[in-house]
């Protein structure tokens, strides 16, 4: 009696009783050779990306994150051969967009345009439903931007040293504005005050624009501001610039010293942007994204456009970006605790 041996939809009739195990083995091997396709027969995995990529921007249109996204998304579309769709998801200080990415499928089709404050400050300010470090995987740094310390022209100080001496003589006499509690400009001023040993009064406004307008109007006397928006006012004599906040001089205002040069060694405060993806995204996809991103921000025409926004291209390995996030998170957590800053 014949016996049927089934595998999936296939049926093989075995003729009679097999008398030799070796014969049976050879027969099975022969059958497998003709019925199971070889590697070349399988459909190849589609190359990444095979469909549009969604780029989550953590703020509303018109801000720095949105401007950078509009610069790099078209170039990434050209490089990778798939459309990069900008998706502005403002809310909760940038946490909304970060959460969407953290909970997305780890397939490289949802990418976060991370902003320094969201990644390094928000975990110490907000109670989050996800973990920035655990649920987001760094890809690469994209761009950096320093801040500039500016004063109202009526303040009788022309250097950082002069201003600190004046502020120590009059504790609490100087007000500084910011775009809101816990924002980068607020934290930069708090760190400066802490290291300088001075006391200034924080006056929060709803956005960087109103904060700068308050300084121009004389409502406050001090501001850590973006270089791109402040330099025209400095050149017009409406503001007085003292220093920038990076470890190296800004290419936009190369004649202006840094705070590091002005008695604050290691003072390195600014903002930066980076790509992150959901944790557990395959390394091959992370590497593909990183390569395309680096090629994009290092292109001369892209750098020229970025410079007009006060941005400098900056790249990193995933490990370097992770270390930066960890280091800055520790710094800001200390500042937030000491200053008693609470989320609005």
Write up this protein:
The N and C termini lie far apart (82 Å). The chain has helices at 21-35, 64-80, 95-102, 116-120, 122-125, 132-135, 160-169, 184-196, 208-216, 227-235, 283-297, 300-308, 318-339; strands at residues 3-7, 10-14, 53-57, 84-88, 110-115, 136-151, 175-178, 201-204, 222-226, 240-244, 270-278, 312-313. The longest helix has 22 residues, at 318-339. Helix 2 (64-80) crosses helix 11 (283-297) and helix 8 (184-196) crosses helix 13 (318-339). Strand 3, helix 2 and strand 4 form a beta-alpha-beta unit. The protein has 344 residues and is an alpha/beta fold.
Q: What is the element layout, followed by pairings?
A:
Blueprint (H helix, E strand, L loop, with lengths): L2 E5 L2 E5 L6 H15 L17 E5 L6 H17 L3 E5 L6 H8 L7 E6 H5 L1 H4 L6 H4 E16 L8 H10 L5 E4 L5 H13 L4 E4 L3 H9 L5 E5 H9 L4 E5 L25 E9 L4 H15 L2 H9 L3 E2 L4 H22 L5
Parallel strand pairs: 3-4, 3-5, 7-8, 7-9
Antiparallel strand pairs: 1-2, 5-11, 6-9, 6-10, 6-11, 6-12
